[in-house]
Design goal:
Blueprint (H helix, E strand, L loop, with lengths): L1 H53 L6 H24 L7 H10 L2 H29 L13 H25 L4 H19 L9 H11 L5 H25 L3 H12 L1
Helix pairs in contact: 1-2, 1-4, 2-6, 3-4, 3-8, 4-7, 5-6, 5-8, 7-8
Length: about 260
């Protein structure tokens, strides 16, 4: 009886400790999302300011090359930050792709806590940018009609999510190669959509600028920069699951063939 009582107390203690560690880990992840989103809004502005204002190379070939190189370095830095924070991110579509594949609790945690933390970080970041550099501009805007804009953002997001999911499986071990391919893909897609919708593929970042302009609750913003990327992310995850077999199934098929 004494041993059974000790085992019960030991299990209860382990369960309580596990719950506390889980809550601490989730709280730390929310802080990471907020800080990384704040830094992400600043990073793009600082690259433009450095090349255009301080180097005087705006709209010149050398300036575009410098911006591309700095943006790639920037993406490597944020990929490293995501690694050391165990998943901290600035883009809702990034965490949503993983949450769709996970359980209900993880999905609700992503929707109800992590995405709001990213949005808040972007809003605070943009607010500080405008206060510090008033001439910086007002962020991406929709330059085509609402339906074409939603289709554009949806296709861009669908493509980058498919690429990211493929890299997570095929280039899992190589941080450099995975980040290199992902960075070039994001930059290419951003350039393709920059004149149409801004080529953002990041609802939280766009929300920061839209909130500063006061048009964050308009139909155009919600449909183009939120609903389209979210639906494209879910569709990309489902499509990827249909087209690509998990690694365990591939191993099982290869074993059955050899047998």
């Amino acid at each position: 009886m004494v041993l059974n009582g000790r085992k019960t107390h030991y299990r209860a203690y382990n369960y309580i400790l596990f719950c506390l560690l889980l809550k601490m880990g989730r709280a730390r992840l929310l802080v990471s999302d907020f800080v990384i989103s704040f830094m992400w809004t600043w990073s793009g502005v600082l690259v433009k300011e450095l090349v255009c204002k301080y180097m005087g190379l705006c709209n010149e070939p050398l300036g575009e090359i410098l911006k591309t190189g700095l943006n790639i370095i920037n993406m490597f830095i944020f990929a490293f930050l995501g690694k050391i924070t165990n998943g901290g991110a600035s883009n809702p579509t990034t965490i949503l792709a993983g949450a769709v594949s996970g359980g209900v609790a993880n999905f609700l945690y992503c929707i109800g806590a992590r995405i709001p933390a990213q949005v808040l970080g972007s809003i605070v970041g943009v607010k500080h940018i405008i206060h510090t550099i008033p001439e910086v501009g007002r962020g991406p805007r929709l330059n085509i009609d609402i339906h074409k804009g939603a289709l554009t953002e949806g296709l861009l997001t669908f493509t980058i999510v498919i690429i990211s999911l493929g890299l997570a499986i095929k280039v899992r071990e190589s941080f450099f190669m995975k980040t290199w391919i992902s960075s070039l893909s994001k930059l290419t897609l951003h350039i393709l959509g920059s004149d149409l919708t801004g080529g953002c593929m990041n609802p939280a970042s766009v929300m920061g600028w839209a909130y500063a302009r006061g048009d964050h609750i308009t139909k155009e913003h919600i449909l183009v920069y939120w609903l389209a990327p979210i639906e494209a992310t879910i569709l990309a995850v489902w499509t990827f699951k249909l087209l690509v077999k998990p690694a365990k199934e591939d191993k099982a098929d290869s074993k059955s063939k050899t047998d």
